Amino acid sequence: MSNFSWKPRGSSEDRQGASYIEPSEVLYEIDLPMIFVTDEGPWKSIWYLCDKTDSLLRYLRSGTNTDIIDQLKSGSISVLQALRYPHHEIIDLDFSFQIVSSWKTNIEWIPSEFLPKQHAMLHADLEPILDIKFTGSNIKPHLLPISAIKRGVDGAYAALKKLAEAATSEEAAGEALYSSSIGRPKRSLKKLFDLPTQKLAFGSLEIAFSAPSDVQSDLYPDETRSKLEQMSNLLTNGLEWAYSYPNSKTERPSLNILEALERLSPPLEGAIEKVELRGQLIPTRKTLVLNRDISAHVRRAISQAKREDEESNYIYHGYVRELDKDNQTFTLRDSDGNDIGSFTCLEDTYEDALSAFSTGSEVAVIARSVRGKQFIEAHHIITDIQKLIESVKEP
Amino acid sequence: MLSLFLLHFGRHIGTMTFPSDWVDCPPAEAEDANGLIFRVVKTDPPTMEDMKTYEELGIKYGPLCKRRGLSVFKDVRAAMNCVDLFGQFGNLIAAASLNPEHGKVGPTKTKTQPEHHTWWPCQGIDRVSPFTCVNNDV
Q: Does the structure's ipTM exceed the value 0.90?
């Protein structure tokens, strides 16, 4: 009989006559229950198999409740987080699931190699598509500036949208992202960036996005998975380029990818100083850290790319007569009803576009047209155009 | 590397049989093995120690038929997740391209592990040689 390579730290318990352990629910099983739940009257425990010999199974047992188990099953918390709730015991069972010995212990005393990795979820599909954690000296529980939350949420949304556009346009090999001139995009586009929020934690400002609902329910998973893989490849190439800048041997990413990186990177000033990325879009399965040096590299590259792309900024005047709420695009027309152009809303412009559509008032749209893109990118919408004109006329 | 490996190992092996004392095992819902599966192993190349069933290891917990099979995954991400959860029991992922002569494969009925399957290798089959570690490819 071989022995365990480690002795549990803590007080040994007398479990003479202890009974057979009967899992009430098995959560993870590889030939035998590796993670399971037991009910002891009003109490519940979660068990994690941390070691075994050829005759004994060593489990970590932790107190739990229905809410924690539901969070574990839905992917709101990792397995290690579920195990961190008090109280802890190490329990050795024989292969008939009879208790042989036990120790009251603390999870911090257990060697880390016998515990799950920090972010490991109960199963693979619960791993977030992208988990973004914003850190900085001023990002602390109860001291989180609302500007940091806004920057974090806006940045994550904009970055995913840019990645989705880039992935879809590359896969379509030049086809338009949108299926009609009035701006209705292909159905696959929006679900790639308007992802379900899996976790929103304010203590450290962390946002995690889960897979689109069709992947979760197995509807058309291959098509969506293929696009998610494309997004992952584009992001990976972009990150490789950013990490090795200015000595990068890889080609500079497209403007869309650079802009996605810029939105993911920490701003050059403010509360967010570093951004940690992990999830299915990061294939190295490691946590990547973006700092302000990378932000500066990316911004320089964006400036250069914009000059090279021969793009132009224009101000357009007109009325928002058609608005696609799902895809956040709109059509601007002149007072005679002639089309001026089709625009896609960037950053905070959607609310202004919706307001202009509702009120029917004339607006000025500061926008950028980029070669190869069907939609003009609206960066600012000035809704009170008369006031703007009058203010310009005043000395 | 995966494609070369598929060409090499995806060959006809022999007639599929199971031990005569196996009653209702593999279960009726198990299908002929066919396609790529992944198993978490300890060594590269994998050895027979990586391919022992729980029945062979003397573990008496759970239904006997289940203990006669080997846990495998049909999705490499599920195997990677297993390594993240239980790296102490093996942190390498081996892939095999099975065909019906290798045995039967059926889904393991767990709500939280849709990609988890059980492979019942047929009697006398070489369980080790179909597998190649693919960690560097995933």
A: no
